[in-house]
Amino acid sequence: xxxxxxxxxxxxxxxxxxxxxxxxxxxxxxxxxxxxxxxxxxxxxxxxxxxxxxxxxxxxxxxxxxxxxxxxxxxxxxxxxxxxxxxxxxxxxxxxxxxxxxxxxxxxxxxxxxxxxxxxxxxxxxxxxxxxxxxxxxxxxxxxxxxxxxxxxxxxxxxxxxxxxxxxxxxxxxxxxxxxxxxxxxxxxxxxxxxxxxxxxxxxxxxxxxxxxxxxxxxxxxxxxxxxxxxxxxxxxxxxxxxxxxxxxxxxxxxxxxxxxxxxxxxxxxxxxxxxxxxxxxxxxxxxxxx
Length: 291
Ligand SMILES: [Zn+2]
Description:
The protein contains 10 helices and 8 strands. It is an alpha/beta fold. The protein folds into 2 domains: 14-176, Nitrogenase molybdenum iron protein domain (Rossmann fold); 185-288, Nitrogenase molybdenum iron protein domain (Rossmann fold). Strand 1, helix 2 and strand 2 form a beta-alpha-beta unit. Zinc ion is lined by residues 52, 125, 131, 195, 197.
């Protein structure tokens, strides 16, 4: 019997030794880029959904229960939905502070940290703006952190992770130069955003956010605020309104029709047509800075 089993076992594909659960598709892409088939990756949120509010499903608890490593965006972005899932998964390996919990926000500089917190400021991001993954210059930083973490957890494949990271970092630097070039003509222009979702991307390329369609973070637009924006766009000749792919688009379309600005809908994570990080930033740069 043993003689029969041995060749059978040897012919099975090698099972990944590390099971990784990640909050968002962009993190899943980074893990796959660094690890290829050396780890299993489960992605929780959809790329086209509101990243602040992910509707819990029983399958998400299963993902966390089986995970050796949980990688989150952090900076308060998942505060409403990851902690309840962690509580229900009862997996001590991936709780905050454990070796299997990686908060990527600890490795980047966050902007817009509020100096005081009150309800009057809306549903604020208490730790600052957590949408740092939309600065393409942050991507290799995050890839490196993931590479180092996987190397620690799975030292047998350390060389594979290092090599894959080196290849990725080299390719990404070529893309950064391309995006710099695409975005250059839009330096020192102004835009209106729905939520301050693209601030890191816009700041990187010297584009100023002159206003937001939501009057305060998490607050739906009022008629008064909408009319003020139309006047502001007309007076200051603001050319572009940036709408994300999960808020209602009607207010942006209305403001565009009354002010003459161009309303553009942008993705904010990997998914659909933008099924790689490169395609996501290609699309962001081409659509934001259309010449
Ligand atoms: Zn936000």
